[in-house]
Automatic annotation (TrEMBL):
ATP binds at G105, Q106, T107, G108, S109, G110, K111, T112. Coiled coil: none annotated. It comes from Urochloa decumbens. Residues 24-338 form the Kinesin motor domain. This is Kinesin-like protein. Belongs to the TRAFAC class myosin-kinesin ATPase superfamily. Kinesin family. KIN-14 subfamily.
Length: 370
């Protein structure tokens, strides 16, 4: 299209300015391949510089819009290529950074494909969840100077209820105030992880006759907790949130009734709360409305706090998805302007820890005297 290069250039300059602000929410856009070869696409151009141009398939070219992200993955991008770009973020977890990766987009746009892989994370064409954990294990076994301990938790949020996917029968108390009250499992190897993910998927499916329906109507959150301790006693604690969000499409209220309407209302509410939090952060408001939904409560420390956050904006290429594609890209663009500030590693030197222990001992001694 005429004027494309000029528009990209202008976009690029603006984008570079934004990039200078360190610690923004990073946004990667991924375009699913078309499901049928004959389908008409609304995506006109994917640039190597992280730009994507979408055009209204009904109206003329003049309605085309260009969006700029950190990366855009075209329809032929492989899982390995996507992971390769995500890997530096994952690796920083081992140095004590908190990381949050979330997949946003309408149902069928490829969120689960990116996070879990096809058929919900079975051992073929793995997604980020498995590749990240595998990587963390590789790093932890290759480092002789640091001893790591890796634990995972898996929950889903369905109709504003948090459900433990690793332990559905009994309720547990993990005693951690910033995490939901759900079981935390120690993992020793990549195969432990595969087993837990399959267990989680099974639990997620068991509550519904149509698993695909349920999984697109709930948010699933896999949390990985990594504690490290080096030979001189320095410790680090970090967490990784891997979030497969419910489908972002608006369900027409006139079409949905009963359970479906209730689900739609809960999803609309939690995703619009996520949008409100992102807007408030982007505008640097003093009040950030985290407490308006379970999702934003659980992700609070990853959205505004001391974390590196990556959003995958998933889009479907088909012409009939144009409206949803545009709405996803706008949401993603807003997210990319959020400045989180520079993340800090959650590290504590051995010396400080020893002093804290001494203080604790003294406090206890005092308490027992009084
Ligand atoms: P969502 O989780 O957003 O609802 P899915 O990940 O289930 O979407 O993807 C919908 C369908 O498209 C699935 O059959 C999936 O295997 C396929 N799919 C999605 N992304 C890709 C991709 N990048 N390459 C090949 N197939 C894909
Ligand atoms: Mg899905």
């Amino acid at each position: 299209a005429l004027g494309y290069n000029q528009a990209v250039k202008e976009n690029r300059n603006l984008y570079n300015m934004l990039q200078e602000l360190r610690g923004n929410i990073r946004v990667f856009c991924r375009i699913r391949p078309p499901l049928h070869s004959e389908s008409i696409s609304s995506i006109e151009h994917v640039g190597h510089d992280g730009s994507v141009m979408v055009c209204d398939p009904v109206k003329l070219q003049s309605t085309c819009k260009i969006f700029q992200f950190n990366k855009v993955f075209g329809p032929t991008t492989t899982q390995d290529e996507v992971y390769k770009e995500t890997q530096p973020l994952i690796r920083s977890i081992m140095d004590g950074y908190n990381v949050c990766i979330f997949a946003y987009g309408q149902t069928g746009s490829g969120k689960t494909h990116t996070m879990c892989g096809p058929s919900g994370g079975l051992p073929k064409d793995f997604g980020i969840n498995y590749m990240a954990l595998n990587d963390l294990f590789n790093i932890s076994t290759s480092r002789e100077d640091v001893k790591y301990d890796i634990r995972v938790q898996m929950v889903e949020i369905y109709n504003e209820q948090v459900r433990d996917l690793l332990n559905i029968r009994t309720s547990s108390n993990n005693g951690l105030s910033n995490l939901p009250d759900a079981k935390i499992c120690q993992v020793q190897s990549p195969s432990d992880v595969i087993n837990l993910m399959q267990l989680g998927e099974k639990h997620r499916a068991s509550s519904s006759t149509a698993m695909n329906h349920r999984s697109s109507r709930s948010h699933s959150i896999l949390t990985v907790l990594v504690n490290g301790k080096d030979i001189s006693g320095n410790v680090s604690h970090s967490s990784l949130h891997l979030v497969d969000l419910a489908g972002s499409e608006r369900v027409d209220r006139s079409e949905a009734t009963g359970e479906r309407l209730k689900e739609a209302q809960h999803i609309n509410k939690s995703l619009s709360c996520l949008g409100d939090v992102i807007n408030a952060l982007a505008q640097k408001n003093s009040h950030i409305p985290y407490r308006n939904s379970k999702l934003t409560q659980l992700l609070q420390s990853s959205l505004g706090g001391n974390a590196k956050t990556l959003m995958f904006a998933h889009i479907s290429p088909e012409a009939e998805s144009y409206a949803e594609t545009l709405s996803t890209l706008k949401f993603a663009q807003r997210a990319s302007t959020v400045e989180l500030g520079t993340a800090h590693a959650n590290k504590e030197s051995g010396e400080i820890r020893d002093l804290k222990e001494q203080v604790d001992t003294l406090k206890k001694a005092l308490a027992s005297k009084g």
